[in-house]
Amino acid sequence: MTPAQGNNQLILVVDDEARYVQLITLNLRASGYRVITASNGETAVARCEAENPALVVLDVMLPDVDGYEVCRRIRELSDVPIIMLTAKAEVVHKVTGLVAGADDYITKPFSVAELLARVQAVLRRGEGGRARPARRFEAEDLLIDFEAHRVVRKGVEVTLSPLEFRLLDRLVTGAGKVQLANDLLSSVWGPGYESADEALRTAIARLRRKIEPDPDHPRYLLTIRGVGYTFQRAAAAT
After folding, report:
1. Distance CA 25, CA 15 (A)
2. Domain coordinates in residue numbering, the chain
Protein backbone atom coordinates (compact mmCIF):
# COMPACT_ATOMS: atom_id res chain seq x y z
CA MET A 1 0.00 0.00 0.00
CA THR A 2 1.43 3.36 -1.00
CA PRO A 3 0.93 6.56 1.02
CA ALA A 4 -1.67 7.78 -1.45
CA GLN A 5 -3.84 4.75 -0.76
CA GLY A 6 -4.46 5.81 2.84
CA ASN A 7 -6.21 8.89 1.46
CA ASN A 8 -5.27 10.85 4.61
CA GLN A 9 -8.06 9.20 6.62
CA LEU A 10 -7.90 9.63 10.39
CA ILE A 11 -7.50 6.50 12.55
CA LEU A 12 -7.75 6.39 16.35
CA VAL A 13 -5.41 3.82 17.93
CA VAL A 14 -6.29 2.82 21.50
CA ASP A 15 -3.71 0.77 23.41
CA ASP A 16 -1.76 1.20 26.66
CA GLU A 17 1.25 -0.78 25.39
CA ALA A 18 3.69 1.74 23.94
CA ARG A 19 5.35 -0.81 21.62
CA TYR A 20 2.05 -1.63 19.90
CA VAL A 21 1.05 2.02 19.65
CA GLN A 22 4.39 2.78 17.99
CA LEU A 23 4.20 -0.23 15.66
CA ILE A 24 0.66 0.56 14.53
CA THR A 25 1.17 4.31 14.28
CA LEU A 26 4.36 4.15 12.23
CA ASN A 27 2.92 1.70 9.73
CA LEU A 28 -0.41 3.45 9.36
CA ARG A 29 1.30 6.79 8.75
CA ALA A 30 3.66 5.17 6.25
CA SER A 31 0.56 3.95 4.42
CA GLY A 32 -0.95 7.41 4.13
CA TYR A 33 -3.24 7.54 7.17
CA ARG A 34 -3.34 10.18 9.88
CA VAL A 35 -3.22 8.76 13.41
CA ILE A 36 -4.34 9.91 16.85
CA THR A 37 -3.90 7.79 19.96
CA ALA A 38 -5.37 7.11 23.39
CA SER A 39 -3.94 4.98 26.19
CA ASN A 40 -7.16 4.41 28.15
CA GLY A 41 -10.85 3.95 27.53
CA GLU A 42 -12.16 7.27 28.78
CA THR A 43 -9.75 9.21 26.58
CA ALA A 44 -10.62 6.97 23.63
CA VAL A 45 -14.35 7.71 23.88
CA ALA A 46 -13.70 11.45 24.26
CA ARG A 47 -11.32 11.58 21.27
CA CYS A 48 -13.68 9.54 19.13
CA GLU A 49 -16.53 11.93 19.86
CA ALA A 50 -14.42 15.07 19.37
CA GLU A 51 -12.41 14.10 16.29
CA ASN A 52 -14.70 11.74 14.34
CA PRO A 53 -12.09 9.25 13.05
CA ALA A 54 -12.70 7.04 10.01
CA LEU A 55 -11.67 3.93 11.99
CA VAL A 56 -10.84 2.89 15.57
CA VAL A 57 -8.20 0.24 16.36
CA LEU A 58 -9.08 -0.75 19.93
CA ASP A 59 -7.22 -2.99 22.36
CA VAL A 60 -9.30 -5.13 24.73
CA MET A 61 -7.04 -4.76 27.79
CA LEU A 62 -7.01 -1.15 28.99
CA PRO A 63 -6.14 0.26 32.42
CA ASP A 64 -9.52 1.83 33.27
CA VAL A 65 -12.41 0.17 31.40
CA ASP A 66 -12.00 -2.78 29.07
CA GLY A 67 -12.16 -2.49 25.30
CA TYR A 68 -15.56 -4.19 25.11
CA GLU A 69 -17.12 -1.44 27.23
CA VAL A 70 -15.30 1.22 25.20
CA CYS A 71 -16.65 -0.38 22.03
CA ARG A 72 -20.19 -0.27 23.40
CA ARG A 73 -19.82 3.41 24.40
CA ILE A 74 -18.40 4.39 21.02
CA ARG A 75 -21.21 2.50 19.30
CA GLU A 76 -23.73 4.64 21.18
CA LEU A 77 -22.09 7.75 19.72
CA SER A 78 -20.98 6.71 16.26
CA ASP A 79 -21.12 4.12 13.48
CA VAL A 80 -17.33 4.34 13.01
CA PRO A 81 -15.75 0.97 12.06
CA ILE A 82 -13.94 -0.68 14.98
CA ILE A 83 -11.16 -3.30 14.82
CA MET A 84 -10.43 -4.90 18.18
CA LEU A 85 -7.02 -6.15 19.29
CA THR A 86 -6.54 -8.93 21.82
CA ALA A 87 -3.96 -11.44 23.01
CA LYS A 88 -6.75 -14.02 23.42
CA ALA A 89 -7.61 -16.05 20.34
CA GLU A 90 -10.55 -18.05 21.75
CA VAL A 91 -13.84 -17.73 19.87
CA VAL A 92 -15.67 -16.54 23.00
CA HIS A 93 -13.49 -13.41 23.14
CA LYS A 94 -14.08 -12.67 19.47
CA VAL A 95 -17.82 -13.11 19.92
CA THR A 96 -17.80 -10.73 22.90
CA GLY A 97 -16.19 -8.05 20.75
CA LEU A 98 -18.58 -8.60 17.87
CA VAL A 99 -21.58 -8.46 20.19
CA ALA A 100 -20.26 -5.17 21.59
CA GLY A 101 -20.31 -3.75 18.05
CA ALA A 102 -16.85 -4.42 16.63
CA ASP A 103 -16.42 -4.92 12.87
CA ASP A 104 -13.30 -7.09 12.92
CA TYR A 105 -10.78 -8.70 15.24
CA ILE A 106 -6.97 -9.08 15.22
CA THR A 107 -5.12 -11.37 17.62
CA LYS A 108 -1.77 -10.26 19.08
CA PRO A 109 0.92 -10.75 17.97
CA PHE A 110 0.02 -9.83 14.40
CA SER A 111 1.95 -9.02 11.26
CA VAL A 112 2.02 -5.53 9.78
CA ALA A 113 0.67 -6.96 6.53
CA GLU A 114 -2.36 -8.40 8.33
CA LEU A 115 -3.03 -5.15 10.17
CA LEU A 116 -2.90 -3.04 7.01
CA ALA A 117 -5.00 -5.52 5.05
CA ARG A 118 -7.72 -5.56 7.70
CA VAL A 119 -7.71 -1.78 8.04
CA GLN A 120 -8.08 -1.37 4.29
CA ALA A 121 -10.81 -4.04 4.11
CA VAL A 122 -12.87 -2.59 6.96
CA LEU A 123 -12.63 0.94 5.57
CA ARG A 124 -13.61 -0.31 2.12
CA ARG A 125 -16.62 -2.19 3.51
CA GLY A 126 -17.60 0.90 5.47
CA GLU A 127 -17.80 2.88 2.24
CA GLY A 128 -20.51 0.53 1.05
CA GLY A 129 -18.77 -0.51 -2.17
CA ARG A 130 -18.36 2.36 -4.64
CA ALA A 131 -18.75 0.15 -7.70
CA ARG A 132 -22.12 -1.28 -6.66
CA PRO A 133 -25.00 -0.29 -8.96
CA ALA A 134 -27.77 1.88 -7.57
CA ARG A 135 -30.32 -0.12 -5.57
CA ARG A 136 -33.12 0.97 -3.29
CA PHE A 137 -35.74 -0.59 -1.10
CA GLU A 138 -38.82 1.51 -0.44
CA ALA A 139 -41.86 0.93 1.72
CA GLU A 140 -44.37 3.28 3.29
CA ASP A 141 -42.24 3.83 6.39
CA LEU A 142 -38.76 2.71 5.29
CA LEU A 143 -36.21 3.72 2.66
CA ILE A 144 -32.90 1.92 2.14
CA ASP A 145 -30.60 3.54 -0.43
CA PHE A 146 -27.65 1.23 -0.98
CA GLU A 147 -25.72 3.55 -3.27
CA ALA A 148 -25.92 6.45 -0.79
CA HIS A 149 -25.42 4.11 2.19
CA ARG A 150 -28.53 5.66 3.72
CA VAL A 151 -31.51 4.40 5.73
CA VAL A 152 -34.57 6.51 6.54
CA ARG A 153 -37.45 5.39 8.77
CA LYS A 154 -40.59 7.52 9.01
CA GLY A 155 -38.71 10.47 7.51
CA VAL A 156 -35.84 10.29 10.03
CA GLU A 157 -32.37 9.19 8.96
CA VAL A 158 -31.13 6.14 10.84
CA THR A 159 -27.46 5.59 11.68
CA LEU A 160 -26.17 2.07 11.08
CA SER A 161 -22.69 0.75 11.77
CA PRO A 162 -20.83 -0.62 8.72
CA LEU A 163 -21.43 -4.16 9.97
CA GLU A 164 -25.16 -3.50 10.47
CA PHE A 165 -25.41 -2.05 6.97
CA ARG A 166 -23.62 -5.06 5.45
CA LEU A 167 -25.99 -7.40 7.27
CA LEU A 168 -29.04 -5.43 6.13
CA ASP A 169 -27.67 -5.36 2.57
CA ARG A 170 -27.25 -9.14 2.55
CA LEU A 171 -30.75 -9.70 3.93
CA VAL A 172 -32.47 -7.27 1.55
CA THR A 173 -30.54 -8.64 -1.44
CA GLY A 174 -32.00 -12.05 -0.63
CA ALA A 175 -35.42 -10.69 0.33
CA GLY A 176 -38.07 -13.38 0.54
CA LYS A 177 -35.50 -16.14 0.92
CA VAL A 178 -34.52 -17.75 4.21
CA GLN A 179 -30.81 -17.21 4.84
CA LEU A 180 -28.96 -19.62 7.10
CA ALA A 181 -27.35 -18.12 10.19
CA ASN A 182 -23.99 -19.69 9.30
CA ASP A 183 -24.11 -18.22 5.80
CA LEU A 184 -24.89 -14.74 7.15
CA LEU A 185 -22.03 -14.95 9.65
CA SER A 186 -19.58 -16.13 7.00
CA SER A 187 -20.56 -13.52 4.41
CA VAL A 188 -20.97 -10.52 6.75
CA TRP A 189 -18.41 -11.16 9.49
CA GLY A 190 -16.04 -13.32 7.43
CA PRO A 191 -14.53 -16.80 7.56
CA GLY A 192 -14.05 -18.19 11.05
CA TYR A 193 -17.16 -16.60 12.58
CA GLU A 194 -19.69 -19.25 11.52
CA SER A 195 -20.36 -20.23 15.14
CA ALA A 196 -20.81 -16.67 16.46
CA ASP A 197 -24.60 -17.00 16.75
CA GLU A 198 -24.88 -14.56 19.64
CA ALA A 199 -23.19 -11.82 17.60
CA LEU A 200 -25.72 -12.37 14.81
CA ARG A 201 -28.69 -12.32 17.18
CA THR A 202 -27.43 -9.09 18.74
CA ALA A 203 -26.93 -7.44 15.34
CA ILE A 204 -30.42 -8.48 14.22
CA ALA A 205 -31.88 -7.04 17.44
CA ARG A 206 -30.05 -3.75 16.84
CA LEU A 207 -31.33 -3.56 13.28
CA ARG A 208 -34.87 -4.21 14.44
CA ARG A 209 -34.65 -1.39 16.97
CA LYS A 210 -33.49 0.93 14.22
CA ILE A 211 -35.76 0.05 11.28
CA GLU A 212 -38.85 -1.73 12.61
CA PRO A 213 -42.01 0.17 13.58
CA ASP A 214 -42.37 -2.33 16.46
CA PRO A 215 -39.14 -4.27 17.16
CA ASP A 216 -41.00 -6.79 19.34
CA HIS A 217 -43.29 -7.65 16.42
CA PRO A 218 -40.98 -7.26 13.38
CA ARG A 219 -42.44 -6.53 9.98
CA TYR A 220 -39.25 -6.78 7.90
CA LEU A 221 -36.59 -8.83 9.72
CA LEU A 222 -38.15 -12.18 10.52
CA THR A 223 -36.61 -15.08 12.44
CA ILE A 224 -37.12 -18.55 11.03
CA ARG A 225 -36.59 -20.49 14.22
CA GLY A 226 -33.82 -23.04 14.08
CA VAL A 227 -32.86 -22.04 10.53
CA GLY A 228 -31.99 -18.37 10.06
CA TYR A 229 -33.52 -15.07 9.01
CA THR A 230 -35.39 -13.50 6.13
CA PHE A 231 -36.19 -9.98 5.00
CA GLN A 232 -39.91 -9.73 4.29
CA ARG A 233 -40.86 -7.47 1.41
CA ALA A 234 -43.46 -4.91 2.44
CA ALA A 235 -43.05 -3.14 -0.91
CA ALA A 236 -41.10 -3.82 -4.05
CA ALA A 237 -37.34 -3.19 -3.98
CA THR A 238 -35.74 -1.53 -7.01
Report:
1. 11
2. 3-126, 136-231
9: CB partners within 8 A, 6+ apart: 33, 34, 53, 54, 55, 123
List C-alpha distances in Å: 188 to 83, 90, 167, 181. Answer: 15, 20, 6, 11
Per-residue pLDDT of the chain (238 residues; tens, 9 = 90+): 444 456 789 999 999 999 999 999 999 999 999 999 999 999 999 999 889 899 999 999 999 999 999 998 898 888 899 999 988 766 666 777 777 888 888 888 888 899 999 999 888 876 643 334 447 888 888 999 887 888 999 999 998 888 888 899 889 888 888 888 888 888 888 777 767 788 899 999 999 999 999 999 999 999 988 888 999 875 444 4
**53 neighbors 36 (Cβ within 8 angstroms):** yes
Identify the helix (H) or strand (E) that includes residue 70.
helix 67-77
Give the Cα separation of 238 and 230 in Å (integer).
18
Best CATH choice for the domain 136-231 from the list 3.40.50.2000, 3.40.980.10, 3.40.50.300, 1.10.10.10: 1.10.10.10
* Fold match between domain 3-126 and domain 136-231: no
Residue range 3-126 forms a domain whose CATH class is alpha beta
Regarding pTM above 0.85, the answer is: no
